[in-house]
Amino acid sequence: MAQKSFILKDPNIWIGDSGATSDSTFNDMRMQSCKETKSSVTMGNGKLIHPKKIGDIAVTIHNKNGNEISDAKMTDVAYIPEANFNLFSITRRLRQGFKLGGDKNSIWLEKSDKKIVFDIVIPTPKGAIYCAYLKRKNAEVASASKANKLISIN
Hints:
The protein has three helices and 13 strands, in the order H-E-E-E-E-E-E-E-E-H-E-E-E-E-E-H. By secondary structure, it is mainly beta. The protein has one domain: Beta Barrel (Cathepsin D, subunit A, domain 1), CATH 2.40.70. It is globular.
């Protein structure tokens, strides 16, 4: 695992986590609509952590080969600088109506025309960690594409 685990420090790599009740990130790069929160998060080691803030992150979903799949917006993501990884809550999506599927090569969530595939597999001694590449978008680009406006690079 040590050979591949370095990619977990990439702010665009998200671990698909069935134990996380909310999304969390160690990096607040390109977070939007941020607000303070009084909520707390229980980490895997049982330690109670208070996020510095929560916010939204506009992303482009990619597959493991770097191909763009679709755009999405993650909402109410907890910014926890002491965290070691980005966690993507699978259970939150199931409660939102997504269907879960998987095999030894990937795990995926589907709802309507949206599909999030966790196809970056990091073997562990007794299993694997399944990750997705969710590239963070610039706030300006995300809002411009949402409105279908063309903007000049100048």
